Amino acid sequence: MPAAVIYCIGKSDIWLDNKAQELEDEYPEVAVLWHHPAHPRYIKEHKMPSPGIPILIIQDKEELRKAKAQLRESGYYKHWR
Fold it and tell me: In this predicted structure, what is the pLDDT of residue 59?
């Protein structure tokens, strides 16, 4: 299953959080992440790039597990400890 990004113009962070939970409850095989411009994301002190509008990101959980395993094998996570 390919990932999907849904632009949710005008939606609040609470709406996004509720919709993400609703979708994950209905479709347990997917992970739904959300981003709202009012909540910038950081890894350590590094601000991550983010869109200027609210979005939902829907991804297949199994694909995410595979990608995580590949990143672990490549040594990527050593850079973020």
Answer: 97
DSSP codes of every residue in the chain: ---EEEE-TT--HHHHHHHHHHHHHH-TTEEEEEE-TTS--EETTEEPP--SS-EEEEEEHHHHHHHHHHHHHHTGGGGG-
Annotated domain spans of the chain: 4-80
The tokens for 58 are 């829907």
CB under 8 A, 24+ apart: contacts of 47-50: none
Asked whether 63 and 9 are in contact (CB, 8 A), the reply is no
Q: Regarding beta strands 4-7 and 30-35, do their DSSP bridges make them parallel or antiparallel, or are they unpaired?
A: unpaired
Q: Is the pLDDT of residue 80 over 80?
A: no
The predicted structure's pLDDT at residue 81: 63
Whether the pTM exceeds 0.85: the reply is no
